[in-house]
Request: fold
Amino acid sequence: MRWLVTGAGGLLGREVAQALAADGADAVLLDRRALDVTDPGAVAEAFARHRPGLLVNCAAYTAVEAAETDEERALRVNGDGPRHLASLCARHGTRLLHLSTDYVFPGDADSPYAEGHPTAPCNAYGRSKRAGERAVLGLLPDRGAVVRTAWLHGAHGPSFVRTMAERAQAREPVDVVADQVGQPTWAADVARLLLALGRVPGAHGVFHATNAGRASRYELAREVFRLVGADPGRVRPVPGAALGGRAPRPRYTVLGHDRWREAGIPAPRPWREALAESLGRAR
Reply:
């Protein structure tokens, strides 16, 4: 089976590419310069040229703040792009694993969101990602999978974890939001879950690919400082409102993992364990 990965130059796309290479898979890797998913003609040409059996869509508009004033562009990439891909997958009998986000939820819960919980995004970025989810699940009811992830960190590209690790090398205190709770997630673990899911014939629907447990951004920052040998006491808790920003942020986006067990795939491991391994590799 040939895999095709869109958005292969991003933080997650590069981890997926590495995982496929380690597995010896037949894979075609297309970054945004090689394939603009908002261009239906380019998508059709890519399918005709590569004839994939399974497509992993990591292409995305991820600028949460910018989306508030550029929602049209976010919708083109996050909504229209997946629709073009899903349409071609439906025509060619290709399976699609589409990456989405915890931001499709409003953040008003106090227990983990199940995969089937109704979505209600509180910002433009979340609305654009929900549009992509609906396109994939609507056009590919039996061959499409929406894989939601959150708070990604890894070796490639910017992330909150990388920023905190860099700030830990200085001596100044760091103010970090303490009232947003989610799941720090290592991109390498998500890549492994995607490969496992791709090997399960007929797997479709919604899956949550986040490391287990929960943490505020403040707690995550303290753990990063501790793991790199800096003083966690330098991290100071502040409310999210104190840092401003145009985009409303969900307060709580912890996700449940029941669908992995149903697919016969082990549920994701705890975020602290994954973070320690991630930072250990970076040193």
Observations:
- DSSP finds ten helices and twelve strands in the chain.
- Residues 151 and 213 are 13 Å apart (CA to CA).
